[in-house]
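Email to the structure team, subject: Major Facilitator Superfamily protein model.

Hi all, the expression group asked for a predicted structure before they design truncation constructs. Nothing fancy, just the tokens so they can compare against earlier work. One-line instruction: predict Major Facilitator Superfamily protein, return tokens.
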Amino acid sequence: MGRFFHKYHLLSFSVSIQAYLFSTFINSTAAKLNFTFTQIGLINLVASFVYALASITIGHSGYKYGYKKTMSLLFAYLLFVSFYGLAVRTPYALTLFAILQGAFFGSFFPQVEGLIAKSESTLGIDPPSITGRFTLSWSTGNIIGVTFGPYLTVRLSYIIFMIGLILSSCSAILITKDGRKSGDVIVFKPAHKLTEHTYNSSIVNDSKLMRKLRLEYRIILFLGGLVYTSVMADFPKLILLAGLNLDKAGFLIVGANIGVFLTFVLLQSWKGWVGNEKICALLLSVVPATGILAIFAKSPLPFFITALFAGFSYAVPYTFAIFYGLLSETEAHGKQGALHEMVIGMLFGVGPFLGGLLLDRFNGNTGLVVYALAISLAIYSIQLFFNKFYVLKSQN
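Reply from the structure team: attached below.
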């Protein structure tokens, strides 16, 4: 296992657990405080704006000042955020906490993305293996965070912040020591399998096609992610309204993160989708399927299955976007990572906000159905544009 993953994958895994412990704390606490769907969407929108802003400002500073040095400083900041979280009791305090934690995660993930991409590319690791192993590390962490976040919020919320205090202090110390010992690179001896190319290199070497695919799937990632983020934010209240216990909500919502993980495993082991727009279009059918399934989300199993497909809706275009986005020149890794995280940050706010408006307007599940089907129409329109009109424009 040590020849395939290294300690910065473990760091990504650990921070992702904390990210989803915090996000489920925010959404579950909002449900407990009787926020409307629109108000839940607003608090997520504010936090995501900060996340996106941090991504495109602080997010690529690691390239200039050192990824490890920047991460050490960010963990010192997370220590403060975790202390503050222990005192959150009111809607205003919850909103401020959402802002503070959004700034950390928006700044952190581009650093670890850039460090991994920079270091592993110099070791000759196959680019899909770079992105694939990174996405598996954080998606596994998400499953744990989402599963236990609502339960801990209702029963033992202080544990969420104690974990944050331990993670931030230990990480700051260990990264600082590693930076002094190894410099701003990851010391890692990869397995031979990681250096084998398993994709159509002629597509990746076509710079014009890569720019087209990168832009196309960043837009589609944003659209597909709107469904996923709306489910993540609004399901605690939907579950509560269905008469189910809020402390068990994580065991249903985690279906979304299991869907993300399963998609990453499949699409990283099978590369038939690379450059094949017909297969990509077929895979994107999980978005309208989520809308259809949402009709039946009234009891535990349908809630879990709807969440599972919402995870597919996010992970399919995410895999496409990060593959094409991070397959770039070494000096662009930090920039591409920051742009990628900016998109992620925006959809984690816009999705819950628009979803909240529709769920309030159509009284819950019907709003989610309308939302998913409208987004599906937009996704296929975007794909049609890029494969017909955009190509023609580029050739003229």
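The chain has a mean pLDDT of 86. The longest helix spans residues 207-241. Ping us if the truncation boundaries need rechecking.
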